[in-house]
Specification:
Two copies of one chain form a homodimer. Chain A is an alpha/beta fold and 193 residues long. Chain A is 35% helix and 20% strand. In chain A, helix 1 runs parallel beside helix 5, helix 1 packs across helix 6 and helix 5 runs antiparallel to helix 6. The two termini of chain A are 25 Å apart.
Chain lengths: 193, 193
């Protein structure tokens, strides 16, 4: 199962490092072969600077990554991404081919702008609920939830809620037992909504 | 206040990205000037690959960083660090000059090996409690705590407990109000021990 996390300049650090930690820890705790191949995907090759001045090196860019089974789009200062036709087209195409699609925090705006969330019940960071509601009136935006699971599409609340959602995805894609072992390994109090 | 986070090959991703998120988010929520300058310090210049294949670019190496007021040493696959005389000497020297010293997860082994924890009450990841106890019999190693505060020295439990401890450090160094605002911004359920 290939987990591709889309990141960009000024993405929120915990939005992508939290899910990365969950899926790679789940891999370590598996008895047999690797459950998840996890990689970071950026618009272009080269280092990316996340919010607060945190420079990292994505594994792939949007032109050369392996097939993605689970696409995760993260939040942060997401507004520039909403203006990029090539990124939105890539998100739409990749989401269509993926088995599952998820967002963390304001990553929901990117999925919405790419047309991936049409008609869905979704959530985002508590500070951005009204904005998401007003910007995309076809969505049912709910608050006070760690994540909203619409089957193939799952959206989470802000920042650390992406960890809770990722544990839910491990549970859904693999087993509740592995998700609970992962949370315990991370010493994380998993809030199951 | 300069917060220097010591990282290395195969450090645990959330051990450093969690505290980085806490201190940079606290900065954003401050009304006036920057409260914390946060940076990652490695043994040498160049990219570092954290556990699970996560490549990032530390701000400084141990020869060229600014003065450190709060030194945080993180965990992960820490055993190689225990063999490096230059790193242990740097940790000892930097800890001596710092106002405060903290560890996340198995970072406690590095502080202990550098002689920084002598006689302290400390904690680490639940899986490593016995090992820490046996390796450094002069320490009082406690379990079941998110962090142990010895005044100038604070050690946390595993991985995500580093986030709880970092919020505690924001509270201690700045204000409880700012720490609570930061936790809320991160949508993190702060466990205050």
């Amino acid at each position: 199962m290939n987990v591709g996390i889309y990141i960009y300049e000024n993405a929120e650090v915990l939005d992508f490092s939290g899910p990365f930690e969950v899926f790679t820890t789940a891999n370590r705790l598996r008895d047999t072969e690797q459950a998840f191949k996890v990689f970071l995907v950026a618009e272009q090759a080269g280092p990316v600077c996340a919010r607060g001045g945190y420079s990292f090196n994505p594994h792939y860019d949007i032109t050369n990554h392996p097939d993605i089974d689970l696409l995760i789009v993260v939040g942060g200062v997401h507004t520039e991404e909403l203006k990029k036709a090539n990124v939105l087209q890539w998100v739409a195409d990749t989401a269509e081919k993926a088995r599952m699609v998820a967002s963390v925090c304001t990553g929901a705006f990117i999925l919405a702008e790419a047309g991936v969330l049409a008609g869905c019940q979704v959530t985002t960071h508590w500070e951005d609920i009204d904005d998401l509601r007003q910007s995309y009136p076809d969505l049912t935006v709910v608050e006070g939830r760690r994540w909203v699971d619409e089957g193939r599409i799952v959206t989470s609340g802000g920042i650390s809620a992406g960890i809770d959602m990722s544990l839910h995805l491990v549970s859904k894609l693999f087993s509740l037992e592995l998700a609970e072992k992962t949370a315990r390994q991370m010493e994380f109090d998993w809030r199951k909504n």
